[in-house]
Specification:
It is a single chain. This protein folds into two domains: about 5-205, 3-Layer(aba) Sandwich (Rossmann fold); about 310-465, Rossmann fold (3-Layer(aba) Sandwich), CATH 3.40.50.720. It contains 18 helices and 14 strands. The protein has helices at about 15-25, 40-45, 60-65, 75-80, 110-120, 135-150, 170-175, 190-200, 215-245, 250-260, 280-295, 295-325, 350-360, 375-385, 395-400, 420-425, 440-450, 460-465, and strands at about 5-10, 30-35, 70-75, 85-90, 125-130, 155-160, 180-185, 210-215, 335, 365-370, 390, 405-410, 430-435, 450-455. α14 links the parallel β10 (about 365-370) and β11. The structure holds nicotinamide-adenine-dinucleotide (NAD) and uridine-5'-diphosphate-glucose. It comes from Micromonas pusilla (strain CCMP1545).
């Protein structure tokens, strides 16, 4: 029987759980949506005026739905017990210790959520895997649920519904997704009914042709594969950026020419100081580890190389900064504009600014960091011991005052509209700009007097002679 869902619980009130549930609440006023988390501060923030995450458009939707059909609570057990459908959107980070450490996904939080579901469920539940998980996780979770449920006759149907939103554009991505993918046990009637129940939820705003169904394992693997393909494009264009610098080609022109081929397409071809974010590296390592476990060493190595190229790009950037500045940055103030892993988010997980910052500090630099959305406390947490060489600023011009160089680490729009003449005036000379995001007007900066290094662009004579090539 297809259940027309009227109550949903989501375990995990993070970057995925919060925005996705806010969207369901907005589009499905007939469904009561309760988002639960074990973190009291996170739930308090969701219930306050200062939401725990910054995402354009999120505030308005939460304010519109909260208290009506959208609720945030730490009463995990109560919310599970009274809901028909449970989304699990907990974190699945890379394992830090034990078997597969540094590669495999850590499913501790997932399993703990499953055990809680089993313990408190007295009625049938449809369980939706929203977290990104290794292929065949649903199988393991089903066993945990069945073996731990104390009430006889309770049925659990497990679906895979991976999330494809990108941070910074989450609300637009959720409003009009390219596709919604639902995996289930579509060979049996009950599995088919469970899939239909979730399809029915999304059909409230997503056109039917964009809701695609698959078997469980295909859905789980598609998520890992999608991230691997996206990251591979960035590593591919970044590999070209190194070759462009060596040959005098211009990576933006190369990317434009590539993107005009309709088989390649123009998106995700922006060369950068490296991809960051909580997903790409974690999911590729997880994918490669799964390949290793199946004895597919060559396939694993292929995907590891995507992460390897990303590390190379970050190291290469640090080397450029050091060699351009006469091979010494000791005690020089270097300003980092941007710390978040991309614009329009305050998220710093795996941000390239962290590795680049550590690299510069290792060479003796004093860092001045300005980011419009990242808090000082977050930077301190990410940089740890390095903080003794870092000052954070609330104003970009103060961060830039007396700096020898500026490194653009995040593509925030506001950096483009700064008065770069004024900035030149307050910096030490020669004043260097290292554009790791290719967002500034390099010709104009050179006219002002800056020495400019732009990733993947022809190297200017001053830098070539400083670097001895
Ligand atoms: N961040 C993204 O843009 C994104 C996009 C698509 C998919 N994903 C995937 O979605 C999942 C969640 O990612 P996120 O960025 O939202 O993580 P997050 O760390 O922001 O949020 C996870 C939340 O789950 C809570 N939690 C953990 N165990 C719990 C439990 N047993 N009971 C209740 N709450 C619990 C944590 O306290 C935390 O608040 C991951 O698997 C990730 O790979 C993330
Ligand atoms: O051409 C590009 C595009 C992106 N990036 C960088 O790549 C990283 C990731 O960007 P993006 O993919 O836009 O953001 P995420 O929020 O990490 O989203 C990715 O990871 C999510 C978590 O799995 C998926 O849901 C999304 O589909 C997938 O795009 C960021 O550092 C970007 O600056 C580039 O360097 N060049």
């Amino acid at each position: 029987m297809v259940v027309k869902v009227t109550s949903i619980c989501c375990i995990g009130a993070g970057y995925v759980g919060g925005p996705t549930m806010a969207m369901i609440a907005l589009k499905c006023p007939h469904i009561k949506v309760t988002v639960v988390d074990i973190s009291q501060p996170r739930i308090d923030a969701w219930n306050s005026d200062e939401l725990p995450i910054y995402e354009p458009g999120l505030d308005e939707i939460v304010k519109q739905c909260r208290g009506k059909n959208l609720f945030f609570t730490t009463d995990v057990e109560g919310a599970i017990a009274e809901s028909e459908m449970i989304f699990v959107s907990v974190n699945t980070p890379t394992k830090k210790t034990g078997l597969g450490k540094g590669k495999a996904a850590d499913l501790t939080y997932w399993e703990s959520a499953a055990r809680t579901i089993a313990a408190v469920s007295k009625t049938n539940k449809i369980i939706v895997e929203k977290s990104t998980v290794p292929v065949r996780t649903a199988e393991a979770i089903e066993k945990v649920l069945q073996r731990n449920c104390n009430t006889s006759g309770v049925r659990f149907d497990i679906l895979s519904n991976p999330e494809f939103l990108a941070e910074g554009t989450a609300m637009d991505d959720l409003t009009a997704p390219d596709r919604v993918l639902i995996g289930g046990k579509i060979e049996g009637q009950e599995g088919t009914d469970a899939v239909a129940s979730l399809v029915e939820v999304y059909a409230n705003w997503v056109p039917q042709e964009r809701i695609i169904t698959a078997n469980l394992w295909s859905a789980e693997l598609s998520k890992l594969a999608a991230n691997a393909f996206l990251a591979q494009r960035i590593s591919s264009i970044n590999s070209m950026s190194a070759l462009c610098e060596a040959t005098g080609a211009d990576v933006s022109q190369v990317a434009y020419a590539l993107g005009k081929d309709s088989r390649i397409g123009p998106k995700f071809l922006n060369a950068s100081v490296g991809f960051g974010g909580s997903c790409f590296q974690k999911d590729i390592l997880n994918l490669a580890y799964i390949c290793e476990c199946h004895g597919l060493t060559e396939v694993a190595d292929y995907w590891y190389s995507v992460v390897g190229m990303n590390d190379y790009q970050k190291n290469r950037f640090v080397k450029r900064v050091v060699s351009a500045m006469f091979n010494t940055i000791r005690n020089k103030k270097i300003c980092m504009l941007g710390f978040a892993f991309k614009k329009d988010t305050g998220d710093t997980r795996e941000a390239p600014a962290i590795d680049v910052g550590n690299g510069l500090i290792e060479d003796g630099a004093r860092l001045a960091i300005y980011d419009p959305k990242v808090s000082d406390a977050q930077i301190a947490m990410d940089m740890g011991a390095g903080m003794s060489n870092i000052t954070t600023y609330k104003s970009h011009i103060e961060a830039l005052r007396d700096a020898h160089a500026v490194c653009v680490m995040t593509e925030w729009d506001e950096f483009k509209s700064y008065d770069w003449g004024e900035i030149y005036g307050v910096m030490q000379k020669p004043a260097f700009v290292f554009d790791g995001r290719l967002i500034l007007d390099h010709d104009k900066l050179r006219e002002i007097g800056f020495i400019v290094y732009a990733l993947g662009k022809p190297i200017e004579p001053f830098l070539r002679s400083a670097e001895g090539n």
